[in-house]
Hints:
Helix 3 packs parallel to helix 4, helix 4 crosses helix 5 and helix 7 packs parallel to helix 8. This protein is an alpha/beta fold. The model has no long low-confidence stretch (mean pLDDT 96). It has a single domain, classed as Divalent-metal-dependent TIM barrel enzymes (TIM Barrel), CATH 3.20.20. An eight-stranded parallel beta barrel has the order 1-2-3-4-5-6-7-8, surrounded by seven helices. The longest helix is centred in the middle third of the chain and has 21 residues. The chain is built from nine helices and eight strands.
Amino acid sequence: MKIELGVCTWTFGDLPLAEIARRLQVLGFDGVELVGDPSLYTAKQAAGILGDHGLRVFSLTPNNVDLAHPDDALRQKAVDYYLWLLDFAAELDQPMVSCHGYVGRVRAVSTVEDEWRLFAGAVRQIADRAATLDLRLVMEVLNRYEAHLVNTASEALAFVREVGAENVGVLLDAYHMNIEEAEPASALRQAGERLWLYHAADSNRQGIGRGHTDFRAQMAALRDIGYGGPIILECTAPGPDPFTAIKGPDSRSWLETYLQESRNWLLDNQQ
């Protein structure tokens, strides 16, 4: 299985994109999952910076907006952001656009059933617009301590079926599966041809080999389903607060250590 390797840019914190790109080029990565934040760069600027360092944009990760909130104004604001993100993606050689619940909201404001319906309706609206731009969405499955609606592969597949759009797939993450799935490798096989993106970090969200995740089993599952997408590393520096990338003066040094170790492991175990 020939794989391309990328890194989520948010894990570097507020480091400028040009410096992130320089470091990833030195580390030998192929591309990135880019934060879709209009305050940081235009699509043209991001494409130029990354292209200058030989990096592709595999996918976009969204700002933290709430597509399932029962307040119509809040939900519409979130939809409007995603519509902007689609236009941003269309200028970037059409990377996949990640979509997920509001990170940090772990319970329903109204009811889970009502918010599931609202979430599906909002994603359906975004998917319709994405189809006109020939873009694909991936529903990112987060653990229960970060989001409350889509926490497992089976829930993601049910959600995709409810949305009912051919351009909506699934993103599974080894770190989140370690919490939610009884058998992560089986979850990957269950997702099958709908698995369009895969994130990797060990059970402690450090580099591959520093936790207890069975990555050999997950690589075998990816081969079995014919996964052809990139592997995106989403390791974070050690320390509390999973929502903060940089936790101290040594954070980026640790992050780059994790990225190098993970890249080496994946390249050594891609067959």
